[in-house]
Amino acid sequence: MTVQQPSILLVCVHNAGRSQMAAGYLRHLAAGRIEVRSAGSMPAEQINPVAVEAMREEGIDITAEQPKVLTTEAVQASDVVITMGCGDACPFFPGKRYEDWKLDDPAGQGIEAVRPIRDEIKGRIEALLAELLV
Fold this sequence. Notes:
By secondary structure, this protein is an alpha/beta fold. The protein has a single domain (about 5-134), classed as Rossmann fold. The protein contains four helices and four strands; from the N terminus they run βαβααββα. The protein has helices at about 20-30, 50-55, 70-75, 110-130, and strands at about 5-10, 35-40, 80-85, 95-100. A four-stranded parallel sheet has the order 2-1-3-4, covered by helices on one side. Helix 1 packs across helix 4. The longest helix has 22 residues, at about 110-130. The model has no long low-confidence stretch (mean pLDDT about 90).
């Protein structure tokens, strides 16, 4: 019997900081055992360079990622939807698992302010993986 790979969608407003860092950790730590998507309700032009720098310090390269627009299809195709400050802009479908992570927005912040956000995201991703990959 084959077990279907869980799918996680990480959403923040601009898909440039929090959700991209979370997706980077998830891809890195899950090592192909989870399908990872990220999107934003109002995507930015590019990923926050300070978020890229913070992740580089962890040995994770997210420079190739691009902010993507949140679609109904992405939500429908995901088992778990994790929002980070997008509020009512995130579509809701019964039967999906939703979590809302209250995280500071790294936009406009320096590396000293972004590191604690990054570290909190890492802890939440590790806890999520421990729960999903039993």
